[in-house]
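Possible regression after last week's pipeline update?

I re-ran a chain I had predicted before the update to compare outputs. Posting the input and the new output here so someone can diff against the archived version. Not blocking, just want to make sure nothing changed silently.
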Amino acid sequence: MAQMWITMGPQHPMTHGLWTLRVKVDGETVIDTEAELGYIHRGVEKICEARDFTQVTPYCDRLCYVSAMTWANSYIYAAEDLLEADVPERAEYIRLISAELQRLASHLMWLGAFGPDIGNLTLMTWCMRDREMFLDLLQELGGSRMHYNYPRIGGVKRDIPIGFADRMIAKVKLFEKRIEEYEMMLDESTIWLVRLQGVGYCNAEEMVEAGVSGPNVRAAGVNYDVRWAHPYSVYDEVDWEPAVEKPTSVKGADCYDRYRVRIEEMRQSCRMVLDAIEKIPGGKNTNYASGDEMIYPKAPTRAPEGATGFSNYE
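New output (post-update):
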C-alpha cells in the first residue's frame, strides 16, 4: 500500500481535545505526524488584560477542567511573587493537599481515556469510579465539582471542613489498594503489553532537546521534578520522592513506561497527602473561619469609591 497522509481532527475520537494530528501512514504503521494546536487558543491572556488580579483565578480554572486546581495555583504563585505576599503555612499545606488530590483525578482521567484506545473498556469505568472520590473531596473545598475558584492570593478561600481529613484519609487509603488492582489487571494483560511495549520510543536526550517535561520525561529516566528540584509551597516538608521510570529498552521510553510512571506518581501523591494532613499546622480536625490569619491573613482593603479595586477578596 502506498504511503498517505490522514487528517485526524479537530473533532476526532482519537484526539481527546480540540486539535488536529496529520498522520502519515504506510499500511497500518504511522511513520510521521504533524500536530496543529492552534484550535486550543482562546485568548485568555487578552481577556485578563481587562480584569484586575482578583478576577483572573476563575479563568485559570477553565484552562483545563481536568486539573483546574493546578492551573489556578500556578497563577496564584506568580501573583504572590510579584506582590511579595506572605502565605500562612496552614494555607500552603491545604494547597499542596488540593493540588495532589487534583493530580490523582487528572492521572485517572488520563489512564481512563487511554484504556478504550488500547481496547480495555473496563479501565475507563474503574478510573471514573475512583476519580469521583477525589472530585468529591475537591468539591468540599471549592464548592464546585470542576471549577473551584479556591486558591486566593495570600491564602485559600476557606479552611478544610470538619471531618474532611478523616474522609480524605479513608478514600486515599482505599485508592492505594485500588492501584494494586489496576496493576493486576493491566500488567498481566497480553493485549495491554503487546499494544504498549515497544510503541512510541523516545529517549531522554530527544525529550530534553524537545522541551518535554513532567511524567513523560521522567518515564525516560530523567530524574527531574520541579517540586523536588526547586521545591515551592511545602513540598520540601512532606514525605515523597519523584516517580522516575527506568526505560525497558535502550531505544528510550515507550508507551508502557509512560503508563508505569503515572502509576507511581499516583502512589507518591497518596503518600504526600497522607503525610501533609498529619503535619498541617493547627491540626487536621480544626476549622478556621474564612479570613482567619491561619488561612488568609489580610483584611479587605477597598478604595472609597468601591469600583477602583481591592487587595483582598472572598
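Follow-up from reviewer: compared with the archived run. Confidence is low (pLDDT under 50) at residues 308-314. Marking as no regression found.
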